[in-house]
Amino acid sequence: MGVKEHREHGVKRIRFAIVITTDSRDDKSDISGKLMRDMIKNAGHELISFNFSRNSAEEIESTLKKLLNGNADIIIFSGGTGISEKDITVDVVAPFFEKVLNGFGELFRYLSMREIGSAAMMSRACAGVVNKKIVFCLPGSSHAVKLAMEDIILKEAGHMVYEVRK
């Protein structure tokens, strides 16, 4: 079965949850969250949860656990994937992964490198499967969010959800 056939078997309507990890942005100043909400809606999917979380390990973990017990198919954390001391999202979320989707981070950094050069290596963007849900950790910039959503996540979401539900 080729890529086309796999995508045809994919889930058509997916339930997304978004978490913006930040100490400085809110609903009025957050461009990345609005962009993701619009892209999900325009792709015909459903946004069932949208939250802000401070750069606090306890708050990120608590939010993740709540979402893992909910009915989202895909959970996206945006922010906290860099290399500064405050960038802890990956450190909190990744240990929950039952299966790591190494290819996502590799592909994201490859596509980013074509646009921003070698600075792409500083992104720790990653993805994994937890409790039959796909969890992504994306950078907080709107450019990075658009790239990840448009070129990777929305293209493969239906196929991924189909696979984890098997």
What this model shows, in words?
By secondary structure, the chain is α/β, with parallel strands linked by helices. The protein has one domain (3-165): MoaB/Mog-like domain (Molybdenum Cofactor Biosythetic Enzyme, Chain A, 3-Layer(aba) Sandwich). 45% of the residues lie in helices and 20% in strands. The chain has six helices and six strands. It has helices at residues 3-8, 31-42, 57-68, 89-93, 102-116, 142-165, and strands at residues 15-21, 46-53, 74-78, 99-100, 126-130, 133-138. A hairpin with a 2-residue loop joins strand 5 (126-130) and strand 6. Helix 2 (31-42) crosses helix 6 and helix 5 (102-116) runs antiparallel to helix 6. The longest helix is centred in the last third of the chain and has 24 residues, at 142-165. It starts with a helix and ends with a helix.
